[in-house]
Design brief:
This is SDR family oxidoreductase. Keywords: Oxidoreductase. InterPro entries: NAD(P)-bd_dom_sf, Sc_DH/Rdtase_CS, SDR_fam. By secondary structure, the protein is an alpha/beta fold. The chain has one domain: Rossmann fold. The chain is built from 10 helices and 7 strands. Helix 2 packs across helix 10. The radius of gyration is 18 Å and the shape is globular.
Length: 292
């Protein structure tokens, strides 16, 4: 039995060494993503407590800071980018709210339990869970995807969502909202991101099924499916250099989106503006028409 096959017998897969720069530091990017909220707040999350995973940078940072502007206290979970996480917490506090760090690998259920426990200990409640953390590893051929990479990608992108929802469930009551991050690749496919796009298909199915499971208790579950968004994920190893150079140019709008163009979709699904929506997916993708 070779090493790559043996990895599937492990309950937890450590970071792979194929793209050592992932998930990437936003502070190291020359062309910084636009994450600051674009409009004044209106108290749509006043008094609420939210968890945003992958909240150190990109879509997660934009969402966390927007939630803070709308009145929420926000806990951010991140893997290891302390510098980026500090910027996010500082921005949350500048909005007049409170923030909380949680560093760790959410593919480990114990890390998820610790995150929720920390939030409950600090604020005594949990109203919104945003499952945004993810990773991707480009491969031209399906035969290049190792068993280790395959399990790692599923562990980070979808297993973590199960673990966090399981940890959060006892604290979610009527009116709570869960918002998951899927992707346009779930709808249109991606020949170079086979394992990643497969996890996004799983996330969409999980969203619809979890909605059916929780709606009887007044808990809504929806998702956002971004198109190509300018975050650290792609330039820091999540896409080949030749694709990064022309990232987003294939959309009808001819450009990548910015994190602060996606965060409002998460806000809409997290607040009472979307009170008659559950099991649905929003598509901030630059005009790409998809089915579903």
């Amino acid at each position: 039995m070779n090493d790559s096959t043996e990895t599937v017998d492990k309950a937890f897969i450590e970071e792979t060494n194929e793209e050592p720069k992932l998930p990437g530091h936003e502070t190291a990017m020359d062309d910084k993503p636009e994450w600051e909220p674009r409009y004044p707040g209106s108290g749509r999350l006043k008094g609420k407590v939210a968890i945003v995973t992958g909240g150190d940078s990109g879509i997660g940072r934009a969402t966390a800071v927007l939630f803070a502007r709308e009145g929420a206290k926000v806990a951010i979970a991140y893997l290891e980018e302390d510098d980026d996480a500090r910027i996010t917490i500082d921005a949350i506090e500048r909005e007049g709210s409170e923030g909380l760090f949680h560093r760790g690998d959410l593919g480990d259920p114990e890390v998820c339990k610790a995150l929720v426990a920390k939030v409950i200990d600090k604020w005594g409640r949990l109203d919104v869970l945003v499952n945004n953390a993810g990773e991707q590893h480009p491969d031209k051929e399906v035969t290049e995807i190792t068993a280790e990479q395959l399990q790692r990608t599923f562990q980070t992108n979808i297993f973590s969502m199960f673990y966090l929802v399981q940890a959060a469930r006892p604290h979610l009551t009527k009116g709570a909202a869960i918002v998951n991050c899927t992707s346009v690749t779930m709808y249109k496919g991606s020949g170079g991101l086979l394992d990643y796009s497969a996890t996004k298909g799983a996330i969409t199915a999980f969203t619809r099924s979890l909605s059916e499971n929780l709606i009887k208790d007044g808990i809504r579950v929806n998702a956002v499916a971004p198109g190509p968004i300018w975050t650290p994920l792609n330039p820091c190893g999540g896409a080949p250099p030749e694709k990064v150079e022309h990232f987003g140019e294939g959309t009808p709008m001819g450009r990548p989106g910015q994190p602060n163009e996606v965060a409002p979709a998460f806000l809409f699904l997290a607040c009472e503006d979307s009170s008659y929506m559950s099991g649905q997916v929003l598509h901030p993708n630059g005009g790409i028409v998809v089915n579903g």
